[in-house]
Amino acid sequence: MAIKRNSKVTSNFSMASMTDIVFLLLIFFLVTSTLINPNALRLSLPKSNNQVSPKSKQRVAVSIRQLSQNKYEYYVNTKQVTFAEIERNLQLTLLNVEDPVVALYVDDTVPTGEVVKIMNIAARNNFRMILATAPE
To answer: In whole angstroms, how far apart are CA 95 and each of 54, 100, 126?
Structure first.
């Protein structure tokens, strides 16, 4: 007398859970890749082989882009401001910060005089200044 099994083992594999995981990973990497770049402007930064990262976690990015011969766009983080508003925005953003750092992103076509103006603002307010460069 042979004993019969009522249930058979099937060798089917469902790919539904695998595709869910792939889509979740895709969404995760798309979201995190947009958060990596703090500088939203496309600037052609000067080249350097010395890369320094600030020790302070609180950092503000100031970007300068040349529009024409004597016209420039100024940004504090990603907000477009006029030159007269830069100092006040930096003061408000870095208020009560122990070691304030300003990262300066300047297009390589911008004259040095514009860079020095921002450096003077940082010096007046005792902010540390970092000039961002692209690796060589």
So the answer is: 18, 9, 12
Domains located in the chain, CATH noted = 47-135 (3.30.420.270)
Contact 44, 133 (CB under 8 A): no
The pTM of this model reads: 0.59
E runs forming strands in 8-133: 47-48, 59-68, 71-76, 79-81, 101-106, 128-131
Measured between alpha carbons, how far is 88 from 90 in angstroms, rounded to an integer?
5
| 59: β partners | 101
Q: What is the pLDDT of residues 91-113, one digit of tens each?
A: 988 888 888 888 888 888 888 88
